[in-house]
Each structure stands twice: as structure tokens, then as C-alpha cells.
Design a protein that fits this description.
Blueprint: H1 12-18, H2 21-31, H3 35-43, H4 50-60, H5 66-73, H6 88-96, H7 105-122, H8 135-145, H9 150-174
Organism: Halopolyspora algeriensis
Protein name: 2-oxo-4-hydroxy-4-carboxy-5-ureidoimidazoline decarboxylase
Domain Oxo-4-hydroxy-4-carboxy-5-ureidoimidazoline decarboxylase: 17-170
Length: 175
């Protein structure tokens, strides 16, 4: 059996290529809530393969502005706090943070306190690509980043947003 082509609407990539623009943008915004990024990707269709889609995603957001970063961060819950929403982004976030044991009261408290300290220092939610990481790893990363200056932290956050977007794009293709 041959692999589906990029125009096969049954395949994930074929669906990405054939979705009406507003629907595709809605799905892309669940990956990274940055309008410019979503629109630029939608404008680059059709994609021959997943690598081309990922390249378009990378090219669309090489330089996120502070305003775009803050908009995107608003869609992310604190690390260690389960998103209560029912939308795609909330569902993905719960899955991505599955390494945090909600029953570990000491860890949950340390994450809550770390999040609060981070937010006081930087003025926004702590963000890290949590997929495949334990709660202890996420806490260690949080603590290590508290010593960063604002410019360094904004670069790290932008990189983390792009990592999360790439992982979520894979989910869009697979759906």
C-alpha cells in the first residue's frame, strides 16, 4: 500500500492542505496562539510532506515579538496545574504535563511556589515543553531559569513555544 499523498484528504497532511482557511487557522492557533504564525503557515499551503509543513512553521515565527509571546502564554496553564478547559489546547496541555504527579503534594506545592516566584520576576507564566518530562525535572528547570535576565528568559520562552508548536503540529497531522 502506498503512502497517502499530500492531496489525499483522508490523510492528516491532506486534510491540512484541504481545510478551509479559517478552520486551519483555528487548528494552528491551538498549536501556537500567534495570529501571524498561523496565517503565514496557511498561506504556504499546499505542503508536499510533514517536513515541508515543519519548515514553514519554523520560518513563520523565527522572531516572536514580546506581545506575541505574551498572547501565546495566555493559552498555557501553569506547569503543575491541570488545564480545566475542554478545547484542543487544554486537552493537549493535560497530556503534555502528564509527568507531573498531582498526588505528590510536596511537588505540587514546590511547583506552585516556583510558578509564583517566576511570575513575580518575569511577569508571565513559566513555560517549558513538558512532554516526556517528570514533575521533578520541570521543577528543576524552573528553578534554574529564575536566575536568568528578562531578555534571556524571553528567548528561552520563544524557543519553548516553538518546540510545543512543533509537537502539536504533529498531532494535527495525525488527527
Amino acid at each position: 500500500m502506498s503512502a497517502p499523498s499530500s492531496t489525499d484528504t483522508g490523510s492528516g497532511l491532506g486534510r491540512v492542505n484541504s481545510l478551509p482557511r479559517p478552520e486551519l487557522i483555528k487548528q494552528l492557533l491551538a498549536c501556537l496562539d500567534v495570529q501571524r504564525w498561523a496565517h503565514e503557515i496557511a498561506d504556504r499551503r499546499p505542503f508536499a510532506d510533514a517536513a515541508e509543513l515543519y519548515a514553514a512553521a519554523d520560518a513563520a515565527a523565527p522572531d516572536l515579538t514580546d506581545d506575541e509571546i505574551h498572547t501565546a502564554l495566555a493559552a498555557h496553564p501553569r506547569i503543575g496545574e491541570r488545564s480545566q478547559g475542554s478545547g484542543t489546547s487544554s486537552t493537549w496541555s493535560r497530556s503534555e504535563q502528564s509527568g507531573v504527579d498531582a498526588e505528590d503534594a510536596e511537588l505540587v506545592t514546590a511547583l506552585r511556589e516556583g510558578n509564583e516566584e517566576y511570575e513575580r520576576r518575569f511577569g508571565h507564566v513559566y513555560l517549558v515543553c513538558a512532554s516526556g518530562r517528570s514533575g521533578a525535572e520541570l521543577l528543576e528547570i524552573l528553578r534554574s531559569r529564575l536566575d536568568n535576565d528578562r531578555a534571556t528568559e524571553m528567548r528561552i520562552v520563544a524557543d519553548e513555544l516553538r518546540k510545543i508548536a512543533r509537537l502539536r503540529l504533529a498531532r494535527v497531522i495525525e488527527s
